[in-house]
Amino acid sequence: MEELLSIISLNWPSAICILIGFGLVIVEMFVPGFGVPGITGLALLLVGVVLAANSVLEAILLAIIIVVLLCLILSLSLRSASKGRLAKTPLVLSDSATKEEGYSSAEDMSYFLGRQGVAQTPLRPAGMADFDGVRLDVVSDGEFVPKGTKLVITKVEGSRIVVSQCAEAKA
After folding, report:
1. Which CATH class is domain 110-170?
2. In this structure, are residues 165 and 154 in contact, taking their beta carbons and an 8 Å threshold?
3. Which residues are CB-contacts of 43 (< 8 A; sequence separation ≥ 6)?
């Protein structure tokens, strides 16, 4: 090992660049984000290799050692995340907001079920309809409905309101 270190002439500036570069790359492994620490760390590692190496062979050898060490650190951090202390703390939210607890993603439109109204636009099959002064986006049950036709709400699925023509309008 001493022969390897004697081949590579590590001086203070190159050693500082390599150590700070390692630190920044490790920070990027644990705190993923925009990539500033990772890019800066890689740049410092490159500068450290250039400052330490006297030949291309030394630069390649030092780069291989750095890559192996970074792979080892990454595998240890991934192992820690899956089996170690990091695995015991939840990283993903496991709670859910259910309808039974009073949460909903959309306004409950089921109180419109059975109400009658008038088509404000032609329904092909979607359009606008007026129900007691409230304009709603509605969908017909598959057929074309002309403007001004009397409608009844037959089904409400979340924010999707399905209408059909009133029996007196069909006749």
Report:
1. mainly beta
2. no
3. 21
Give the closest residue to 156 by CA, choosing from 91, 93, 112, 92. Answer: 112
What residue type is assigned to position 139 of the chain? Answer: V
CA distances from 128 to 115, 165, 166 (A): 15, 14, 16
Cis (ω within 30 of 0) for the bond into 125? yes
pLDDT digit string, tens, across residues 9-33: 568 888 899 899 989 988 888 777 7
Q: How far apart are CA 79 and CA 75, in angstroms?
A: 6
Q: What dihedral do alpha carbons 92, 93, 98, 102 form, nearest 10°? A: -160
**Distances in Å between the alpha carbon of 156 and those of 41, 43, 167?**
56, 59, 19
Per-residue tokens: 11: 């001086």
pLDDT tens sequence across 26-66: 888 877 777 888 899 999 999 998 888 888 888 899 889 99
